[in-house]
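Exercise 7. Given the encoded structure of a 98-residue chain, write a plausible sequence.
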């Protein structure tokens, strides 16, 4: 594992996967993905060590200095994703009247 290649500061982080003690995390700023990293899962709050967890993460010198889990944001993001899936799964009405 290497250092996190992001500027120092605070980011929204979303856990993609947690496997074998390692978490793949995507970092966002202003709703745009700005990078990702594989980090020790122990650097995340215990209740955020699962896929789709949303956190606020402070990066300093290429490392996580602080991380706070946001369960409400996690639930909202999951609901938005389900809504998008539901809309995409609805087929448009067919013009075929045979």
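Solution.
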């Amino acid at each position: 594992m290497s250092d996190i290649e992001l500027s120092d500061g605070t980011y929204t982080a979303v856990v993609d996967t947690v496997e074998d003690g390692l978490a793949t995390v995507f970092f966002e700023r202003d709703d745009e993905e700005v990078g990702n990293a594989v980090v020790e899962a122990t650097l995340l709050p215990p209740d955020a060590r699962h896929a789709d967890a949303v956190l606020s993460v402070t990066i300093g010198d290429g490392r996580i200095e602080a991380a706070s889990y946001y369960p409400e944001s996690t639930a909202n993001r999951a609901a938005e994703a389900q809504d998008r899936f539901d809309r995409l799964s609805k087929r448009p009405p067919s013009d075929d009247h045979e």
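Remark. The helical segments are 71-89. Students should compare their own answers with the one above.
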